[in-house]
Amino acid sequence: MHYGEIKKCDIANGEGVRVSLFVSGCTHHCPGCFNQDTWDFSYGNEYTDKTEKEILDSLSPGYVNGLSLLGGEPFEPQNQKVLVQLLRKVKERYPEKNIWCYTGYLYDRELLSESRARCEHTDEMLSMIDVLVDGRFVEALKDIRLVFRGSSNQRIIDVKKSLESGEIVPWEAKVKRGM
């Protein structure tokens, strides 16, 4: 797997201060995507043990709320294979931190059901994600007033509650924002 960037103090891609990993590789190719360079599976740097250590070490400060996975597309099967190993280590080392993931795939129609994204790692990966922002970016539905998503069709899902209930449960912000 390759990645485009690691942000160690990100406040835009999930609640609180986060470490964000922008993986490479995406087959959605959404018009207006903010990160088109990462469509290429070979873009950026190779993900190595050193990369993983850097991410894990960056999560250690108490002010860091958790990890966000973005892309590219974290749920491309070749990315899931690597990311599931990272998520295991994050959950083991930092059980109090939360994990957010952004995906163009739909939670209920493509990640829980047969699709090109679904593979042997999907269920385990979902079990370790706390909040999932799903759905492709749709430029005609772009709204800069939205919190933690780019277009109004995208959903912010509480994955733990959704898996428990069998229904999609929207995420509820812990911090109230203006507007």
From TrEMBL:
<dbReference type="InterPro" id="IPR013785">
    <property type="entry name" value="Aldolase_TIM"/>
</dbReference>
<keyword id="KW-0004">4Fe-4S</keyword>
<dbReference type="GO" id="GO:0043365">
    <property type="term" value="F:[formate-C-acetyltransferase]-activating enzyme activity"/>
</dbReference>
<dbReference type="InterPro" id="IPR034457">
    <property type="entry name" value="Organic_radical-activating"/>
</dbReference>
<protein>
    <recommendedName>
        <fullName>Anaerobic ribonucleoside-triphosphate reductase-activating protein</fullName>
        <ecNumber>1.97.1.-</ecNumber>
    </recommendedName>
</protein>
<keyword id="KW-0949">S-adenosyl-L-methionine</keyword>
<dbReference type="InterPro" id="IPR058240">
    <property type="entry name" value="rSAM_sf"/>
</dbReference>
<dbReference type="InterPro" id="IPR007197">
    <property type="entry name" value="rSAM"/>
</dbReference>
<dbReference type="InterPro" id="IPR012837">
    <property type="entry name" value="NrdG"/>
</dbReference>
<dbReference type="GO" id="GO:0004748">
    <property type="term" value="F:ribonucleoside-diphosphate reductase activity, thioredoxin disulfide as acceptor"/>
</dbReference>
<dbReference type="InterPro" id="IPR001989">
    <property type="entry name" value="Radical_activat_CS"/>
</dbReference>
<dbReference type="Pfam" id="PF13353">
    <property type="entry name" value="Fer4_12"/>
</dbReference>
<keyword id="KW-0411">Iron-sulfur</keyword>
<keyword id="KW-0560">Oxidoreductase</keyword>
<keyword id="KW-0408">Iron</keyword>
<dbReference type="GO" id="GO:0046872">
    <property type="term" value="F:metal ion binding"/>
</dbReference>
<comment type="similarity">
    <text>Belongs to the organic radical-activating enzymes family.</text>
</comment>
<comment type="function">
    <text>Activation of anaerobic ribonucleoside-triphosphate reductase under anaerobic conditions by generation of an organic free radical, using S-adenosylmethionine and reduced flavodoxin as cosubstrates to produce 5'-deoxy-adenosine.</text>
</comment>
<keyword id="KW-0479">Metal-binding</keyword>
<dbReference type="GO" id="GO:0051539">
    <property type="term" value="F:4 iron, 4 sulfur cluster binding"/>
</dbReference>
